[in-house]
Design goal:
Layout (H helix, E strand, L loop, with lengths): L2 H11 L31 E2 L5 E3 L22 H9 L7 H10 L5 E4 L6 H15 L13 E4 L3 H14 L7 E4 L5 H10 L4 E4 L1 H9 L10 E4 L2 H6 L3 H10 L7 E6 L4 H10 L4 E4 L3 H4 L3 E7 L5 H12 L3 E4 L3 H13 L4 E4 L5 H13 L4 E4 L1 H4 L9 E4 L6 H8 L9 E7 L7 H8 L4 E4 L5
Parallel strand pairs: 3-8, 3-9, 4-6, 4-7, 5-6, 7-8, 10-15, 10-16, 11-13, 11-14, 12-13, 14-15
Antiparallel strand pairs: 1-2
Helix pairs in contact: 3-4, 4-5, 7-9, 16-17
The structure holds adenosine monophosphate.
Length: 447
C-alpha cells in the first residue's frame, strides 16, 4: 500500500467529530462574537512619558494602483512598526488576498508555496489578533495562544525567525519546539518563559504536549503549513492528535496552507476548518516565468565534470539537489576537493550545524549548498541564482519546490536539471506538474 492509501485509511477511520454544517457562505466571522477590539495605549507605541515614539508617519508608503499597503488594513501600530523594520511596503498577492479575511477572524484554506509571502500572511493575522484582543487575566504560562505546525525543522525555524521579527515591538513570546535540537533546552524554555506563539514540528510538539509541558487547550489561532508535505511525510496521525488537544474548530481560528490539494488534503482541510475562506495564489515559481529552466541530457558518468564547470563558471550562489544523503555527501566532498566554497545540508547533519550552515549561506560566506529535499525544503534565501538538480526528484512536486529556491520575489533565476539514462523517464511527469515543456539540451563533457 502506498503512503497516500495508508493515510487515506487513517483519515477515513478516524474522522474528527468536527464536521461543518451544510450552509457554507453566510456564517459570520468568529470575531463578531468577541468584545470590541482594543484601541488602547497598548497598540500605540509610547515611551515612559506616554509620548508617541512611533506612528504611521514614520512608515511612508505611497498609494499605488493595484497594490495593497499594510497601512490600509487597520493593523496595530506595533505590527506595522515591525513590518516597516522588515522593509515590506506593499502586501504580496497572498497577503492582500488573505489578510482582509483572516483579520476578521475567518478560517482560511490557502493554496500557496514558499516564496509567496504566506508566512507573513498568517503571522500578521495571528499577531494582530492577539494584540487587538489581549488576555484579560494572567494565566498559566504554558498555555499557548498561537500554534503553527510545519513539517520540517528548517521551515519551522524560518517561521519562528519571522515570528520573532514581527513580535519585536510587542510582548508576545515565540517558542520553537522542533525535533533534532536539544530537548532539554526546549524544555527549559517552556519551564521558564511564557508561551504565546509556538512554532513546532509534529513529533516534538506531541512529546511536549503529552507531558503537559505545553498546553494547547486555549489555542486561539492554529496554522497548518505545508499540509501536503505533512501528509507525504506521514505526520497526519500526530497532527490529528495535536488538533484534538486544541479547542473545537468553531472556537479557534484555523489557517491551512498547502502547495497542492490532493483529495486527502481537501478532506482534512474541510474537517479542520469552519466556514473557511479559500484563497488560491499561483506563485510565480509554478508558472516559472522568471526561472529559466533547462534540462541537460547527459551521460551519468559525465555529470560530475559538467557540474564542476557549471559551478565554477560564474561563481553564482547555487543550490545543488541530490536525492540521497550519500550522494549529497559525495558531491559535497568532491566540490570541496575541487576548491569550491560549499557546504552540505542533509538529514545526516546535526540540526544546530544545519542552522549555522543556512546562516552562512544566507550571509553569502558560502557559495554553494548541496542539499537533499527534506533539508532543502525550508530554505528561504533570497538571491539564489542557480538551482541544479544533480538527479531528478522522484516526486515531481519536489521539482517545483527545488527550482522555487531561485527566482524569488520577482528576481530572475536559472535551473539546470541533469537527466541521464537512469532518470530521464521522470521528465514527462515533471513537465505535467510544471504545466509546460522544459527546454532540453544535449550536453557533453567537451562543451
Ligand atoms: P515566504 O513565502 O513566507 O517564504 O516569503 C518569501 C520571502 O518574501 C521572505 O523572504 C519574506 O521575508 C519576503 N516577504 C514576505 N512578504 C513580503 C512583502 N510584503 N514585501 C516584501 N517581501 C516580503
Amino acid at each position: 500500500m502506498n503512503p497516500i492509501d495508508t493515510q487515506k485509511k487513517i483519515i477515513d477511520s478516524n474522522m474528527e467529530n468536527q464536521t461543518s454544517p451544510q450552509k457554507s457562505t453566510t456564517q459570520a466571522p468568529r470575531k463578531n462574537n468577541r468584545k470590541p477590539k482594543v484601541q488602547s495605549k497598548d497598540t500605540i507605541i509610547t515611551n515612559q512619558n506616554q509620548q508617541t515614539i512611533w506612528s504611521l508617519d514614520d512608515f511612508p508608503v505611497a498609494e499605488s494602483e493595484g497594490k495593497v499597503r499594510f497601512h490600509d488594513l487597520n493593523l496595530p501600530d506595533r505590527v506595522l512598526k515591525s513590518i516597516a523594520e522588515m522593509n515590506f511596503e506593499y502586501c504580496s498577492e497572498i497577503q492582500a488576498a488573505t489578510l482582509p479575511k483572516t483579520l476578521q477572524g475567518y478560517d482560511l484554506i490557502g493554496q500557496a508555496q514558499t516564496g509567496t509571502g504566506k508566512t507573513a500572511a498568517f503571522l500578521i493575522a495571528m499577531i494582530s489578533d492577539f494584540l487587538d484582543y489581549p488576555l484579560e487575566e494572567s494565566r498559566n504560562s504554558r498555555l499557548a495562544r498561537g500554534l503553527i505546525i510545519a513539517p520540517t525543522r528548517e521551515l519551522a525555524l524560518q517561521i519562528a525567525e519571522d515570528a520573532v521579527k514581527l513580535t519585536t515591538n510587542c510582548h508576545l513570546n515565540v517558542v520553537s519546539l522542533v525535533g533534532g535540537l536539544s530537548y532539554e533546552k526546549q524544555k527549559q524554555i517552556l519551564d521558564t518563559e511564557r508561551v504565546d506563539i509556538v512554532v513546532a514540528t509534529p513529533g516534538r510538539l506531541m512529546d511536549f504536549a503529552r507531558n503537559k509541558k505545553v498546553l494547547l487547550e486555549k489555542v486561539e489561532t492554529l496554522v497548518l503549513d505545508e499540509a501536503d508535505r505533512m501528509l507525504s511525510m506521514g505526520f497526519i496521525p500526530d497532527v490529528k492528535s495535536i488538533i484534538r488537544m486544541t479547542p473545537h474548530k468553531e472556537i479557534r481560528q484555523t489557517m491551512l496552507f498547502s502547495a497542492t490539494f490532493p483529495k486527502d488534503i481537501q478532506t482534512l482541510a474541510k474537517q479542520w476548518t469552519y466556514f473557511a475562506k479559500e484563497v488560491y495564489v499561483v506563485p510565480e515559481e509554478t508558472t516559472n516565468k522568471n526561472i529559466d529552466q533547462v534540462i541537460y541530457t547527459v551521460e551519468a558518468d559525465q555529470k560530475w565534470s559538467i557540474l564542476e564547470k557549471l559551478v565554477k563558471e560564474k561563481d553564482e550562489r547555487t543550490i545543488i539537489f541530490a536525492n540521497r544523503r550519500d550522494e549529497t555527501r559525495d558531491l559535497y566532498e568532491r566540490l570541496k576537493d575541487a576548491g569550491v566554497n560549499c557546504a552540505m545540508l542533509s538529514g545526516e547533519v546535526a540540526q544546530d550545524k544545519r542552522v549555522k550552515t543556512l546562516n552562512s549561506f544566507k550571509s553569502g560566506s558560502i557559495q554553494v549548498l548541496v542539499a537533499t529535499d527534506v533539508a532543502g525544503r525550508g530554505i528561504h534565501v533570497d538571491g539564489i541564482e542557480l538551482v541544479v538538480n544533480y538527479s531528478l526528484p522522484e516526486d515531481p512536486e519536489d521539482y517545483v519546490h527545488r527550482i522555487g529556491r531561485t527566482g524569488r520575489g520577482g528576481e530572475t533565476g536559472r535551473s539546470v536539471s541533469f537527466a541521464s539514462e537512469d532518470d530521464a523517464f521522470l521528465v514527462p511527469e515533471i513537465e505535467r506538474v510544471v504545466g509546460e515543456k522544459i527546454r532540453c539540451e544535449y550536453v557533453t563533457q567537451e562543451q
